[in-house]
Design a protein that fits this description.
The chain has about 280 residues and is an alpha+beta fold. It is about 45% helix and about 25% strand. The protein contains six helices and 14 strands. Strands 3, 4, 7, 8, 9, 10, 11 and 14 form an eight-stranded mixed beta sheet that branches. Strand 5 (about 165) and strand 6 (about 165-170) form a beta hairpin. Helix 2 crosses helix 3 (about 35-90). It is elongated and about 80 Å long.
């Protein structure tokens, strides 16, 4: 008797569920969820929060549009301008044997020099596998940003301008690592005093290795961070030139600057023995 009652109750419940419109509407959604859970979840999310999601997306886009120029204004205008006045008083380089950023912040240590004509210098560096950097223009800047963001080759990417005796570098060379300018060996050179013989022109330089891309600890600008071992990069440059057969001689000048540690224009630490390597180019 009880069995028949239980059967009738179950049958009644089944008929009620079949007749319930909510159940009928849920069945296609359940089948769609089983076929493609991800798409079904997104569809249900849009149904439930579609208006709120669209409103949040619009707000996020507007915030991003406002954030980019705000960051550019702070990192590339306001903070660099704020550094110009106190940099000379706060950041005193050892014996002035460093380059400087445009804001007057001590940058890379001067650790190498090459003797020869400008044409011979360019030819020697190219023979050693180093490329002459492009000048900074709007077009080269866009190409540089694209190559770094998407890891695309750009062997002659522009380099930031640094100053020695208030003069920008005369020549800049680089050797990319891994196919893009994210990592690269690089060196800047400034022409020294005019020599009687142009073949004896001295180019003082700063050679460092760009280890990664990041944010300047001083201004917030996007820039490279260097390897602290600048002496290793100095030796690497001379080794490349020697292997290419472009060096007649190499001389070490000890105590050219104070040995020890320092910080460059981006706030990166570096260490050096204070020596200057002078390479005379083959004639």
């Amino acid at each position: 008797m009880f069995g028949s009652v239980r059967g009738a109750y179950t049958s009644f419940n089944s008929m009620a569920l079949l007749a319930d419109p909510a159940v009928d509407e849920a069945r296609p959604r359940r089948r769609a969820f089983l076929r493609d859970p991800g798409r079904a979840f997104l569809r249900d999310l849009r149904r439930a929060f579609g208006r709120d999601v669209r409103r949040a997306a619009v707000r996020l886009a507007a915030f991003s549009i406002l954030l980019v120029p705000s960051y550019a204004l702070v990192a590339y205008v306001l903070l660099p301008a704020a550094w110009r006045a106190p940099a000379a008083r706060i950041l005193v380089p050892p014996a002035e044997r460093v380059s400087f950023t445009e804001e007057g912040i001590p940058a890379d240590p001067l650790n190498v020099a090459l003797v020869g004509t400008p044409g011979r210098l360019v030819a020697a560096m190219r023979a050693a596998g180093w490329a002459l950097a492009d000048p900074i223009t709007f077009r080269s800047g866009l190409r540089d940003a694209h190559s770094i963001l998407f890891n695309r080759p750009y062997e002659t990417a522009p380099m930031s301008t640094q100053y020695v005796d208030h003069r920008p570098q005369d020549l800049a060379f680089e050797k990319t690592v891994g196919g893009s300018p994210r990592c690269r060996h690089h060196a800047r050179f400034w022409r020294g005093m005019a020599a009687t013989d142009p073949r004896d022109t001295v180019f003082i330089g700063a050679a460092t290795y760009d280890l990664t891309i990041g944010i300047s600890y001083r201004t917030g600008e996007v820039m490279h961070h260097i390897d602290p071992d600048v002496d290793a990069e100095r030796a690497r440059l001379m080794t490349d030139l020697a292997r290419a057969g472009r060096l007649a001689s190499v001389e070490r000048v000890p105590h050219y600057r104070a040995a020890g540690s320092g910080w460059n224009g981006a706030g990166d630490p570096y260490r050096t023995d204070g020596s200057l390597l002078i390479g005379t180019l083959s004639r």
